[in-house]
Each structure stands twice: as structure tokens, then as C-alpha cells.
Amino acid sequence: MNLPHLKTIELRSVISDLVKEITPKAIVCFGYASRAIEHISCFQVFSSEHHHYDLLFVQSSTTLYRDHEIVDLITNRFSSDISVNVLSHSVNSVRLALKEGDPFFSKIFNEGKILHCEQDAQLNINERNQTQSNDEPKQRKDYERSFALSESFLELASEALGGNRHDIGLFLLHQSIEQLCIASIKAHLKYRPTTHNILRLISLVSCYIPAVKDVFPCNTTDEKELFEFLKNAYSDVRYKSCYRVPPHIGFSLLVRVTEFKTLVESRYKLNSSV
pTM for the complete prediction? Predict the structure, then answer.
């Protein structure tokens, strides 16, 4: 995997700091994306770049930082032009996964960019186990159930919004996109995510469907506010006593989630037909 920007001084410095602070057994980059923006008008000319990295942290079983904790450590050191998505697993679980030929972890260690690896990590790929799992029918049933759940949540969300139950509609939209992401990740990456954070789930989906990030671009204040309503709906609807959703927010998100669903299902059907 060609990752030309991984050798920047800034990234090397942050990785070095993290190695000292959380002493991971290994850090592997399994995804990278960049975006250049050029703005020209009569009043101002400027350009900027944004870089995104998907990182796997393999940690000692005795000191295990959570995904979001590592993200916070990194973002506090990075400029706003860089974002990260982090998966964190214990060294014992990754060793076992590699030994059993887990397709997700095997692919990462085969093709990813290893940024750091301790000599005693013992993260060896078992080439003889790189075969299709006997559990494929069971796995297919599992993620197709998640697709069906997502569809049901979306239908109920549409009904709730149409009945002026905008808070319930937004809660169901969150559930719909969460299940949609989980189903897609299981199907394409053969990985079972543990997070309920839809920002991180969407980031994982964008590893193989880059267009999904365009559904929620978050380039303007309004776009950021729109996505924040969706991202926080799971907790806000349940715990905020005076929670209110402007009707236009609910219907705008219904359109976006439906568009997201179309992208994800199109990719799934394309892969299933091969």
C-alpha cells in the first residue's frame, strides 16, 4: 500500500510520542485519504489539504487504551488538517486472530504500513489459514439481518417524521445508519466493530466506499450541525429532558441516510454478484 504522506515530520513526531505514552506493541496504518481544496475569488485566494489515516493499535493486555482515548491523544497533537480513525485491540486477541487466519487482521499485516512494532510483539501471519471461512453462510445471515434491521428502522423513522415525532424519527435514523454501517463492515471487511459511534463507523466504511463521506461532508457550520444531530441522537433523545429537533433537520437527515443506504447497498449487491 502506497502511503506517500506517512513520512511527514508531524506524523513521525506524534507516533513517537504515542509510543512513549501508551507503549503499544504495534501501530499499523491500513488506510489513507487526502483532499485538496483551492478557493479563488476576487477577495481571497487560499488552498488547503486534509489528510486522514486509519490506524490499528495493538496494545499490551495489561494497559489497554480505548479507541476514542487514542483518537483524543492524537487529535490534541495534530493540526485540524489531519484526522484519524483508530481501532484498538489487545496483542493477545490479534495474535489469536492472525493464528486463525482472520481475513481482516491478516490483510492489514500483509498490506498495511507498519509504523511501529516491538520485537516481542510476535504478530505472525499464518499463511496456511488464509482460506475462506467455513462460517461464511452464518456470517452472511448475520450481516443480512443487520441490513434488514436498518431497513426497518429507516421505514419507521420516515413514519415518525411524517407524524411530527421528530425526536423519535431522529433516534431511528441513528439506529438505521448504525446497523447499515455494521452490516457493510461485516460483509466487506470481515470485521465486527464494537463502537456505536457513527462517525467512526462511517470512517471505516469509507475505506472501501469513499463516496459515503460526501453524504455528510461537514465542510460548513450547517453541515456540521446537521451531522451532530444525527451522531448524538442515540443519547440526546433518551436523556435530554427538553430535547427538540427542528423539522427541517429531521427530513434533511432522512434524505441523507437514504442516500447513504443506496451507496452501501449498491456496493454490497455489486460484490455479491461477483
Answer: 0.88
